[in-house]
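ingest -> validate -> predict -> emit
validate: passed (alphabet ok, no gaps, 272 aa)
predict: started
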Amino acid sequence: MKVFCILSDERVFRSKSPAIFTHVFKRIGIDSIYVPFKVMPGDIGPAMQSLKTLNIDGANVTVPYKESVLPYMNILSEGAKIVGAVNTIIRHGDQLKGYNTNAIGFMHTLEEAGFDVADKTALVFGTGGVARAVVFILNWLSAGSVTIAGRTKEHISRITEKSGDKAKEISTFNDKPFSANIVVNTTSVSSEEESPEFAQIIGKLDLKDCELVVDFNYGRKNNFWRNMAEKKGIRFINGFTPLAHSARQILLLWTKIDVGPDEFIKAIKEHI
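emit:
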């Protein structure tokens, strides 16, 4: 039997990944289990050592530790190096290799949507590991410009410094028109209940020329990103699709078995 896990703070117990991967393991006949582990901020090092000590075959890392685990990786994939964040770990004996599947998951999401970002303008909300992956792919696919919105200049600057002259930063919005062909939310907020202030800001945005809104979250009954897109007649993609494509890559890395994204979407919908 193989053992896989997901690492986060107290939010790990809200993650649907254990249910989703367990569902897929059963569907394809893999003798494996997937469990959540709560890790305190000061225990990242011991947690990484525990993956080796307990012979955990692979792990997912989610907020807030995607960057914190970097120093403990023996090897980093090229994607993880460029993005500067790890969301997937494979253990080879006493060696840990870190990967980032968020980037390729987002790229496949755009491909599935038939959306070509070349020379398009993009607006990305958030400054964490997913934001880094999204900005990397937008630049990789030759977006015309990428604007990053976050709470602090310091966090935004960490991404813009790696993104070259295509990325610029902003930290506040008003109700003036803003031009963006694609808007991507990588923050953890998608409903008014989570942040009334943020919902109000997004509700006032007058996005000219916007063709696509992508929200990396899912399962929100009152999703203000979706509401904004529907109100303005803009195509909307929720977090099911990028999660499914990312999970497909994770399973391939862990097991060398390729399962289509539809199987993951079925599992996601069944367990939200």
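The mean pLDDT is 92.
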